[in-house]
């Protein structure tokens, strides 16, 4: 019998313990303060509800080829994952986990898995290759689709200073040269392009569990 894989929350706890062991406390403190503020602020207003159309827009694949989110779905239902970028350890952990725990079940149901971020195609390619992902990783230059969803955010001043000290330059990696990123968000979209389920995480240290996504997909497909 295959051992049960740890949940994303358990993997995040391990990741954060490793960060505490490796990075100076004064560099990590602004991230903890930022996450606490994001928790306190809660969900932004205006997030679309199930039953509304999924916003579309121009995106770019890892080879620099222009397409749209609708074209990437190719008439299929899809799980669409918005993530911050290849520089984000939480995002790398999450997308690797989705490869292992979601892809087989989604493929069996004919459901696409698509990851979207504001980074350049080079950053998307890094994410895909580093984590050995078999699903589409797309760039949303200027956060046009994420902006329509109302899920945009940016680092606090303290977190931005810690990012710089750690060699992270979000604006340099983003296609539009800003440090605006989407809140980690997962949407389940049906074949007609209608949002059937949405889960937004203002606090980037928390993520949507694969089991939650599979439950939402099952509810959509009747599986």
Number of domains: 1
The level 1 CATH classification is Alpha Beta
User: Roughly how many Å is the radius of gyration?
Assistant: 17 Å
Biggest sheet overview: 5 strands, mixed
Q: What integer is the average pLDDT?
A: 95
Low-confidence stretches: none
CATH superfamily: Glutaredoxin
Could you estimate the helical fraction of the residues in percent?
Answer: 40-55%
Q: In order across it, which strands form the biggest sheet?
A: 5-4-3-8-9
**CATH architectural label:** 3-Layer(aba) Sandwich
N- and C-termini, Cα separation: 24 Å
**Percent range for β-strand residues:** 15-25%
Order of helices and strands: HHEEHEHHEHEHEHHEEEH
Number of strands: 9
Structure description:
It is a single chain. It contains 10 helices and 9 strands. The protein is α/β, with parallel strands linked by helices and about 220 residues long. It has one domain (about 10-220): 3-Layer(aba) Sandwich (Glutaredoxin). The strands form 3 sheets. It has a 5-stranded mixed β-sheet with strand order 5-4-3-8-9. Strand 1 and strand 2 form a beta hairpin. The longest helix is centred in the first third of the chain and has 17 residues, at about 25-40. The protein is globular, with a radius of gyration of 17 Å. The model has no long low-confidence stretch (mean pLDDT about 95).
Task: Please write out the topology.
Layout: H1 8-22, H2 25-41, E1 58-60, E2 66-68, H3 69-73, E3 78-82, H4 89-101, H5 103-109, E4 112-117, H6 121-130, E5 136-139, H7 144-149, E6 152-153, H8 157-165, H9 170-173, E7 181-182, E8 185-189, E9 195-200, H10 210-221
Parallel strand pairs: 3-4, 4-5
Antiparallel strand pairs: 1-2, 3-8, 6-7, 8-9
């Amino acid at each position: 019998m295959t051992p049960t894989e740890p949940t994303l929350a358990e993997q995040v706890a391990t990741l954060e313990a490793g960060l505490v062991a490796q990075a100076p406390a004064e560099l990590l403190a602004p991230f903890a303060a930022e996450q606490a503020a994001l928790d306190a602020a809660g969900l932004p207003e205006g997030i679309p509800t199930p039953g509304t159309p999924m916003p579309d827009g121009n995106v770019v694949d890892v080879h620099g080829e222009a397409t749209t989110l609708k074209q990437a779905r190719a008439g299929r239902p899809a799980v669409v994952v918005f993530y911050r970028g290849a520089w984000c350890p939480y995002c790398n952990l999450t997308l690797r986990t989705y490869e292992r725990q979601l892809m087989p079940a989604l493929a069996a149901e004919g459901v696409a898995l698509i990851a979207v971020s504001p980074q350049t195609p080079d950053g998307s390619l890094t994410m895909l290759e580093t984590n050995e992902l078999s699903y589409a990783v797309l760039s949303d230059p200027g956060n046009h689709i994420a902006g329509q969803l109302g899920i945009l955010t940016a680092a606090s001043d303290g977190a931005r200073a810690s990012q710089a000290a750690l060699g992270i330059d979000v604006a340099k990696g983003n296609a539009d040269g800003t440090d605006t990123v989407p809140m980690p968000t997962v949407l389940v979209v049906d074949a007609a392009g209608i949002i059937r389920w949405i889960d937004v995480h203002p606090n980037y240290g928390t993520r949507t569990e694969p089991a939650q996504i599979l439950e939402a997909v099952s509810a959509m497909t009747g599986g």
